[in-house]
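Technical appendix A lists one of the benchmark inputs used to test multi-chain prediction within the project. The record comprises two sequence entries:
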Amino acid sequence: MKHIYYILGICILLISSCTDETEEVFKESPEVRMSGVLSEYQNILMSGDGQWLAYYGGEAILMHFYNDSVAFKSTFNNGNDDRTITYRVGASQAPELIFETHSVFHSLYELDRANREYEFLFEEISDTEITFISKTDLGADKTRIVFVKGVPSDIDDARKLKPIVDSLSYFKDFYVDDNPINYRLVTLSGKTFVKNIQEDGLIVNTPLDMGITRDGVIFVPSLEIEGESVSEFVFDETSSVFTAKNTSKKIEIRVSEDTHFSNSDVFSKFMEVDFKGLINTSYSMDSVLTYLRKDVPNFSGVQFYVIRGWTLAYAPGSEGGNWAGLSDFHYNKRDDNNLLITWDYLVWGGSFWELFYYSRGGDILFNEFLLDPNGIYVDEVGSGEYILVSNTDPSKYIQLND
Amino acid sequence: MKNIKIIHILLLLVFITSCNDDEAPIYVPDELEESTDLIDVYFKDNFLEPYGTAVRWRWDDKLVDNSKRVTPIKREFCIPMGNFIKNFWIAPFEKTEDGKSFIYELFPPEVMLIGSPMYNSDGESITLGYADAGVRITFTQVNEYDLGNPDWVLMQLRTAEHEFGHIVHQNYNLPNGLKEVTPANYKSNNWLNLAGDVQQSNPRISREAISLGMVSNYGTSDVNEDFCELLSIYITSEVAEFEERYLTHEPEEIIKLDDGTEIEPNADAAEVNAGRDFIAIKLKLVKDYYWEKFKIDLDVLRDEIVFRLKNPNNPNGDKSDK
């Protein structure tokens, strides 16, 4: 009988435990709620004038969102990749903004498939700023991109400023409250980093994206300089100085045209390793690679042998061999420790040396840069990494790696 | 004891009836509005309604293997690419009623358009296109659209015909006897090690592949690829070009010219000629298969395709005027 009471007790408990009065946390199904979130995000994109500005891959990109399309206006490729395309706000792992056909973001990705992406998830959203996080970046420190409100004149002004910034001298050094610090901004074609020489002499480079704004530049991610987080700089063309916005200290990047003097250690290090590859150029020199790609079939790169004195083009699959170029260059150290390259006479080798040498790219490389009698400044920017800068025109420089 | 049984039954009833889900929220999807986008309208009129084929041109990463890196098609190339598929792939088949039936039955239910090359995980090598389980054919490099570039036109068309070949054999099996012609000559992934001494790319071809009885290096990977490569290259090649490379024997002995000059044969001439004989056998099997199963004469189809390749800007032109 005792058992019966126990069982009856349990029975009453069970009956009372299930009730229709359970309050639902959400009134709608997950699908309805997700649909609501996506609609809300799209409404924010279209809110106000629907125009948002982003800086990515060193370019300023304005997007004008309509109900079912988005119009792009950017500094990239003189606006030739700007299109009006369709988009949607969808959900996979999380809400995401999907550009349904090719856009400026895809063009930038195609230039650097290893480091850029074009699929972004919403991370934080407000009426004035939207932060996206990369969907495909597998690293712990995921790429983020920020949309802020913008207007078309932002792009017009940035387009005017871009060629000015691109043609600045190599020497862009940081100053804090008028005192130089060991930071140098290095801008190359499609690549930017800040070189910092630490107290122990170690060189640390911080890669970042530098976008041209309507009145200066913006760095993504922000830089940490003397305890300050700096992102936006205003450029004064008259003094060639970039001044940081919103900092308590006066932080500047001063652009100098002065002839600099290499130290002898850099020259010695530069000459230690014979083989070097041309990795990148300044914007003022990027036509070298453009012309060589056009004129030399299968062109892949330029190689320098500083001890043996060869300068070769590499074009795998070429008839008659993969390499061709010229020899008997001499790499000399001048009294001021700058580099002077001399060449006594024309000595060539390989089946396509004429295509290389007589290309406009070869002409600029050899006659307007390497063999300049004013010499070349050599800057070390990492282990086995060097920048060679024309003393005649310091906006012309190339990056070499051992 | 009896009471306990009754209580057990009561308990069971309580369990069954105590919780109900009448109040569970039910998702009612929004009604889909038909797109009025010009591109959607074009693909609906030209592919979805006549062939039941959905053309995927809007970016959707779920449709691409996530180990590949690609970018979407440019909007301005969507409709031109649709016209390319119609004029170069579909129309030659539709010159006959049997060809029309063949297309209506086997044309893939899904076609995907990708703008860039499809880079593999190594970041450098690319996949030209592929067919997923006989359902979807993916075109890559559509952003390089250029009817004036014969390499691009041939690459796209051969990719389509190759992948279409997979759909055919996945539905109807391979031609009888094809597997038995060169069963020991397939190299699996080792096809990648073959040279490009006949043709460097699009497709890469070596004399060794021809010696093995295949028309391209990729064709040596397995019998399915062998079938698709033979089919796609045959129907997109001019007669003389195909015969000279793949069917006509080259000299195996020294040739003495009238002026006394002697021409040495290639060292591997006998092996390559033996391979050509294998290709001839396979080609006959493939031609017979298409005729017997589908009443499609591959020679007639080939002539129609080659005409269009020669007249890319006037693919539907009247041949009699030419």
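Strands of chain B lie at 54-56, 110-113, 118-119, 126-127, 129-132, 136-139, 255-256, 262-263. The mean pLDDT of chain B is 89. Comparable benchmark entries are summarised in Table A2.
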